[in-house]
């Protein structure tokens, strides 16, 4: 083999080696996630339409949403549920009526958050639409275990009306709502 052929062979070997190191290896071995990195790992949106309540039934139970996720590494979970809703009152209502919502966000067997929202009707109307500011519930689960599956449930437990402090006000209407459950993984 001549000196030129040897030199060419060496150059080809160097180029192939560099290509392997800089292009192939990074693809096969991705860069590790840096501590503190936040990434969304799952999201689900559902819509509830035309849930009616009448003068006999002053509450409506809204089905919960489930997200089941598997955790791959040491991390924390940050869960949110966004709940914009729309309420149409078909039979009329009066100022001073309170609409009461009970909401829960749960990571089954790990953590639970409950809250109650009270919204007061501002005006008198025979066809009233109420759109309160969309609310977000948040729940943090620290130090989740790798390889573990967690079930997350977001739920509107009940909806009812009241006048004064205790009395229920029987009013018919239609309840519409959309919910989004989102889960972020925060690497440790």
Commentary on this structure:
The structure is a single chain. The protein is mainly beta and 188 residues long. It has 2 domains: 31 residues; 154 residues, Jelly Rolls (Sandwich), CATH 2.60.120. 14% of the residues lie in helices and 56% in strands. The protein is built from 1 helix and 11 strands; from the N terminus they run H-E-E-E-E-E-E-E-E-E-E-E. The strands form 2 sheets. Strands 1, 3, 4, 7, 8 and 11 form a 6-stranded antiparallel sheet that branches. Strand 5 and strand 6 form a beta hairpin. The chain is elongated, with a radius of gyration of 28 Å. The relative contact order is 0.31.
CATH domain fold name of the largest domain: Jelly Rolls
Alpha-beta content class: mainly beta
What is the name of the CATH class of the largest domain? Mainly Beta
Summarize model confidence as the mean pLDDT: 67
Give the radius of gyration: 28 Å
């Amino acid at each position: 083999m001549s000196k030129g052929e040897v030199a060419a062979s060496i150059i080809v070997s160097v180029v192939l080696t560099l290509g392997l190191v800089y292009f192939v290896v990074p693809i096969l071995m991705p860069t590790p996630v840096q501590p503190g990195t936040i990434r969304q790992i799952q999201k689900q949106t559902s819509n509830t339409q035309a849930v009616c309540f009448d003068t006999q039934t002053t509450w409506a139970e809204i089905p919960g949403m489930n997200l089941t996720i598997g955790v791959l590494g040491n991390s924390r979970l940050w869960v949110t549920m966004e709940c914009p809703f729309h309420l149409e009152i078909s039979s009329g209502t009066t100022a001073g009526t309170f609409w009461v919502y009970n909401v829960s966000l749960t990571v089954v067997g790990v953590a639970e958050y409950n809250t109650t929202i009270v919204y007061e009707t501002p005006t008198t109307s025979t066809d009233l639409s109420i759109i309160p500011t969309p609310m977000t519930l948040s729940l943090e689960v620290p130090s989740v275990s790798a390889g573990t599956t967690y079930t997350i449930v977001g739920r509107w437990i009940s909806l009812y009306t009241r006048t004064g402090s205790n009395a229920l006000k029987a009013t018919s209407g239609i309840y519409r709502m959309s919910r989004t459950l989102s889960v972020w993984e925060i690497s440790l």
